[in-house]
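Backbone Fold Data
Goal — fold tokens
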Amino acid sequence: MAPEPSAAPMTLTTVVASTRPGRVGRSVADWFTLRAAECDQFESRTVDLYELARPFFDEPHPPALQQYTKSHTRAWSRLVDASDAFVFVTPEYNGGFPAPLKNAWDYLVVEWRHKPAGFVSYGGVSAGTRAVQMSKQVVANLRMLPIGPTVSIPFVNELVEDGDFRPGKPHEAAAEQMLDELARTARAMRRLRSGTY
């Protein structure tokens, strides 16, 4: 008998939202990806929107039809489709999220459905929390499930040494809580996608 879909390892994809020069988002994402790799529920990987260099949405058909004409869209579709859960690592720009993150969401529709979304935000005194609140509205419209626990990192530049993010105990504890919630939710939503509920 084939194993139940929920028993196989799950893929957690951490997405680096900032593409600007001098960003600290990649170092934060690298820390979180390593932290997630310690969770035996997930296979952990990082996707950097700067490295993908995706153009602004350039498909002639609505993404819900999945009639993709560009190789970069088909590659993005395969990556998102193969993921069971996502964590978006984002700063806050003018009270919202970076444009490249919205663009990454807008390329696809079906591939995002019924997958949990977690958030790691960083910045100054607000720690990027307004970007997370706005992001949750978008992913909910994609029929993702934004989970409650988040990791918020205020005054992030004080925690970066020689290009590496040095988390404190509150960040480690928040990451553990978020990973636990992601694992439970991703397992249930995988069963939902497979029709075994």
